[in-house]
């Protein structure tokens, strides 16, 4: 290929290359020829060569050697060369390169050029790659062009001013008077640029925002002219007059009317006119309506206008376009807390969106459906949500189950209904619920003393039907161990009488123990339930002893240890067995609304037994003269062992003492050490914003070790999801973050999220910690950072 081939020939040669290697060869030869011609002082084909180089750059190959050629061509008096030079500058230069400073003077000269197209090239280049220094130097020239008589230049200058304001915020005051004057223009392009510029100025400066609130009548007049104007071929798009300008004006009105009643009143009539007169059968009409709805909901509008906006969103939900349905549900999610009754009118349509084939629409419909649950519609909404749970995609089951638990806790009409609902969820999606669901449901069942017989019968039948749902099996085993005597009596008025024998119950528990689908935790529940039945039945104690002894040699260490201890109860301490395995007392709640798995109380498996604090209010302390150390069965009091967190969490059927010393461990059943109460660590509030409160408490473990507990709560009216905490410390400090207790914060402080952070400071440096708070509220992602310089108790 000849080095001087035209651009079209080079493109054709590159496209005809069969391999990438052949393509690189073509480009390398052409680039070598372009370099050689750039070195020539008298080069008549400079624009031709630079155009070819720009095409090479678009293909992703290096073209930086053409930067200086761009600078030379911009300084050329010929328009054809200036055009290619400015295009090359926009593509090959940016504000970080020194070569960009060389074109500042050329741009300034061209801004004063007599040819409007040369001025346009300079304006476009400055708006594309102008640095902060260039913007400061050329801002007066842009302000002068904003006042020019040529509409073509004013349009370009307005958009260039937007770039300057974004780069140098202080220059906004320079453009404010000219931007205000541009609103009197008739040219739509100039109006569009002026509105964009005013929007940028108002978003960046509160004082400018107050000044431009006086322009609301002018904007309303311009918008009315667009709405009632007849057909204009120049601006008509699918029957809507200049929808781009309409959308921009509506966005500016939203900014000007926010938190200002006078400005809002001035635009209420216009918004009602736009909402009722805009055609919703076309996409452009829906775009204008959507911006109208956002404006109505964001300003201090009248109640009737807000209802009209919600009804428009309701019509969007019936649209065949899934994108329109999606944005409608996002908008409804944001206002469901303030306009709950208006959104409730479209509950049926929202629930129907749960059946949509699109996963994104389903997720938004689920969020909105959960937000619409109230005390008056809890039964009907829960029926729909449970139907959805049975057929929803796997990635939505955990979210659906958590939302159902939360709604059931807040609005349950009765305890029996509450228990039935949670059991239905466990039966349908037991593998997708949080770990905290099991202890929280156990607490709920314990408190409903009149439903013990009903619950144990229902769980026994569920256990016989399906043992694959681990959470359901764990709760069933716990209930059978606690209330097995009620199950054997068969005197349950709420259910059909079923005769259950001792062998039937033990067969069911043995099936769980032997199933390959049972997790180690589930086997622990089943073994403990079997052991507790030894004090509730009379004829099969030897069979229970045999079952327990088998697992004394189990390969799972936790299960083996538990079985050995239970064997010791049978042999050495049989006289204490009845007292050790007596029924659990009623568990007291220490924070409202945590049966949905969002409890502020840490589960026992997340806290070392020797340091349990929050659990002290869960279970009443046992008398100190009772048997206290199940592990002490294998040795004297001086050989106290530290039980693992997993063992502590998987023996819920045992009486628990939550003292802080070795004698008060979770499994300290036979020890005789006096438990010493642990004073709670002082707490300090470190973050409080938009209803989210973050408190910090510390506990010193050693000279260099520190355990920090961060507790988050939400006192706002709307729920928070995807809540996460991230922490950073100095490099010499070691940091380990344990798993949080949850990722959702229900409204009104219904539950809390706790995060434990372990710090090791061997160099004894000044301890500081930066915490990033991230969460989603009403579909909007929010992120904030807090600096912690002092720690309580240190």
Automatic annotation (TrEMBL):
Subcellular location: Cytoplasmic vesicle membrane; Endomembrane system; Golgi apparatus
Keyword set, alphabetical order: Cytoplasmic vesicle, Golgi apparatus, Membrane, Protein transport, Transport
Main localization of the protein described in the UniProt heading: membrane
Topology relative to the membrane: Peripheral membrane protein
Chain ranges passing through the membrane: none
Domain spans labelled GAE: 679-792
Gene Ontology BP term (one): vesicle-mediated transport
PROSITE patterns: GAE
Domain of life: Eukaryota
Gene Ontology cellular component list: AP-1 adaptor complex
PANTHER family named among the record's database cross-references: ADAPTIN, ALPHA/GAMMA/EPSILON
UniProt family annotation: Belongs to the adaptor complexes large subunit family.
Protein name: AP-1 complex subunit gamma
